[in-house]
Prior knowledge:
Blueprint: E1 7-13, E2 18-24, E3 29-33, H1 40-48, E4 55-60, E5 63-67, E6 72-73, E7 81-84, H2 96-106, H3 111-124, H4 140-153, E8 158-162, H5 173-184, E9 190-194, H6 198-204, E10 207-212, E11 215-221, H7 222-227, H8 232-238, E12 241-248, E13 257-260, E14 265-267, E15 269-270, E16 279-284, E17 290-292, E18 301-307, E19 310-314, E20 317-324, E21 327-334, H9 335-340, E22 348-354, E23 359-362
Parallel strand pairs: 3-9, 3-10, 7-8, 8-9, 15-23
Antiparallel strand pairs: 1-2, 1-4, 4-5, 5-6, 10-11, 12-13, 12-16, 13-14, 16-23, 17-22, 18-22, 19-20, 20-21
Amino acid sequence: MVTASSLTVRAAVPARGFDVDLEVGPGEVVAVLGPNGAGKSTLLSVLSGLLRPDSGRIVLDGRTLTDTDAGVSVPAHRRSVAMLAQQPLLFPHLAAAANVAFAPRAAGLGRRASREAAHTWLEAVDALDLARRRPHQLSGGQAQRVAVARALAADPRVLLLDEPLAALDVSAAPAVRALLRDVLRSGERIAFVVTHDVLDALALADRAVVIEAGHIAEAGTVRDVLSRPRSDFAARIAGLNLLAGEVVRGGAGRGEGLTSADGVFVHGVVDAHCGAGDPGVAVFAPHAVAVYTSAPEGSPRNVFEVTVRELEARGSVVLVTGAVGATTVAAEITAGSAADLDLVPGARVHFVVKATEVAVHARK
């Protein structure tokens, strides 16, 4: 049984535009979010030792794994770091038990101890009955359970999960997610979970890190990042609208809110920690947006004239997207309302959202 680990990462790979500085506490599970090509895989490669950064230092529990200044680069198989990928990548010629036993055997354990470790971890992932089966005899969910057991049998201090549920069908994913939640929430090891699925982040992680263009765009608890996003990607994955710009603290008779990069003023409730002129974001939910064919009058609200770009049916509701300046904004309305308004791509309408529904906070 391993004890809780801590990790410090500082690494730069200029050719990939990658430059990350990150500290992870003992037993912490970090969801790594970001668009394709943002640098998520580079982070995993640097941590695992498969890619040496041009500059930087990685320290795990006081043990230096990488230090470019000192010429230190511990090879991948000696880092106590294990990777779990989208595909199980089991050895096709070995039964499940032998696949799991391979990890401790490669670490130097004897045959008997390795077999015992395989038995322990297959039992832990509820796959002991699969011990004698070859990979081709396993379903996707069963194979991923065996892959989890193999990763844990290596007794890693850091576990890297690269979209571990992406290749599973909808019937297998929930069970494997529940398994991973139990394994990761034990607090015994650090884990990084690369995912595009908000459910994975919510179910598995303590903290979320958003990487955009090779840099950390924001970091915080999963709840904070998804409910108060400061980056475009976090807003999209959370299903929220986000406009970036400068915070406005009253004056000029406009009230408080934010002036977007396109010069659009958005009324909103400004966080107490924001100062006038600070970089900020205005965030609001699509279901808070009403759609009108003509501009309404009434209480303080935001009225944006937009051209409908797309309509997407989502069960009993329709997601209507348009643009406010150069920023895409979505409204969520009932299918009946969409029909009554005769909405089609290219239609000119007004998106309306009350100021009280818009949260303005700092963009770190």
